[in-house]
Every structure is written in C-alpha cells, then in structure tokens.
Design brief:
The complex is a heterodimer of chains A (about 110) and B (about 120).
Chain A lengths: L3 E4 L2 E4 L5 E7 L8 E6 L6 E5 L3 E2 L7 E6 L2 E6 L9 E6 L6 E2 L3 E5 L1
Parallel strand pairs in A: 2-11
Antiparallel strand pairs in A: 1-3, 3-8, 4-5, 4-9, 5-6, 7-8, 9-10, 9-11
Chain B lengths: L2 E5 L2 E3 L5 E8 L8 E6 L5 E7 L6 E3 L7 E6 L4 E6 L8 E7 L11 E5 L2
Parallel strand pairs in B: 2-10
Antiparallel strand pairs in B: 1-3, 3-8, 4-5, 4-9, 5-6, 7-8, 9-10
Classes of the chains: A mainly beta (about 110), B mainly beta (about 120).
Chain lengths: ~110, ~120
C-alpha cells in the first residue's frame, strides 16, 4: 500500500501570497498517477490536478502540480479568498487507492 | 451535466446492514468504472471500493472486504454498496465517484451513522 504523507498539516497565509503544499509517497507512484483535490466544509472534493501536473477542466492556472516518483507539490501562485480550504493528494497507480491526510490552508 | 445522487444512508446499530445507491445521469454510465469513497466526521478521505464497467472486477479496502459488496446496474444507471456487519468505525459520509483513477465527478454524499 502506498502511504501518502502531506505537509504541512496546517498552512496559514494571506490572500495574494504563494502556497506550497507537499505530498510524499512511501514508494514511487506508478506513472505519476497522482491527483490533488480541494474540499470546502460541507462539500464534496473538487479535482484540481491529475497525472501529477495536468489541471482538471475549469481549474484556474494559479494552481500548478509538479513532481514525480515519491515527491509531489501543489503550488497556488496567488491565493484568492476562495482558495482557503483543505487539500488532499491521492494516488491511483495501484490498489488500494489512498489519500494523504490533508493540508488545511487557512487565512492568516 | 454529470450528476451523481447518493441515497440510502441513515442510523444503524452495530452489526446491522444498509444498502447505498447512487443514481447517475448526464453521461454513459456503462462506459465508466465507478467508486465509493468515504469520509468519517472531521477526518480525511478514504477509498472504499471500485467496480469495472461490466461488473466483472471489484476491488475493496482491506477493512471492508467480506462485509461490503459493490455492484452496478447499467440498465438503470445505478451503483450500489451493500454494507453488512457494520461497525462504529464505518460511520462516515459515503460518496459515489465516477471512475477508478482521479475522481472528477462526485455525488453530494450520504451519511451513514453506526451507533447503538
């Protein structure tokens, strides 16, 4: 089983700042099959990035996914008020699919 | 417009059973693998199971193997999760999601509470 560890657990930033979220896998993720999601309270998750670096439909270009192997990063270039939420990474290169524990991006 | 609507959640005692349903619309249901993902209150996301387009392959989280069964009815554009021998730690919002890789479409979720 691939264990995904996200850091930091909580990130406190202000609108307009740059956010860098990390996701580290316990073993290499097959073909970089890694996704990022955003979740707001009371809502279902929203897919942001898949295959490590491809933005999903309708996702603004301030969201960038990067990385390969075991180390992946989600960067939000200039935070907008609506970006404050919990972010999860997920791999889908093998079973079981697993998610990271999440990073809570909060307003400073 | 793709829509996934879950139903069937509720309060059940430990050891009890529930059957969740997910009604799909806005896409050709029979062309897609489908999945269930859950989220315990205040916790993170956890993949539960997924099923191949024709139902011939099914995969489960270890902790639900032998207790949960995923199935589908392509003629009725529906996905199901039969949950037996429910435990307190199965308490969660259960989401239906399209696909078995990155999940672009999710339902709104249905809450399952296992408590005496």
């Amino acid at each position: 089983e691939v264990v995904l560890t996200q850091s930091p657990g909580t990130l406190s930033l202000s609108p307009g700042e740059r956010a860098t979220l990390s996701c580290r896998a316990s073993q290499s993720v097959t073909r970089n099959f890694l996704a990022w999601y955003q979740q707001k309270p009371g809502q279902a998750p929203r897919l942001l990035i898949y295959d490590a670096s491809i933005r999903a439909t309708g996702i603004p270009d301030r969201f960038t996914g990067s990385g390969s192997g075991t180390d992946f990063t989600l960067t939000i270039s200039r935070l907008e008020p609506e970006d404050f939420a919990v972010y999860y990474c997920q791999h889908y290169g093998s079973s079981p699919r697993t998610f990271g524990q999440g990073t809570n991006l909060e307003i400073k | 417009e793709v829509q996934l609507v879950e139903s069937g959640g509720g309060l059940v005692q430990p050891g009890g059973s529930l059957r969740l349903s997910c009604a799909a619309s806005g896409f050709t249901f029979g062309d897609y693998w489908m999945s269930w993902v859950r989220q315990a209150p205040g916790k993170g996301l956890e993949w539960v199971a997924h099923i191949k387009v024709d139902g011939s392959e099914k995969y489960y989280l270890d902790s639900v193997k032998g207790r949960f069964a995923i199935s589908r009815d392509n003629a009725k554009n529906s996905l199901f999760l039969q949950m037996n021998s429910l435990r307190v730690d199965d308490t969660a919002v259960y989401y239906c999601a399209r696909g078995a890789a990155a999940f672009e479409y999710w339902g709104q979720g249905t809450l399952v509470t296992v408590s005496s």
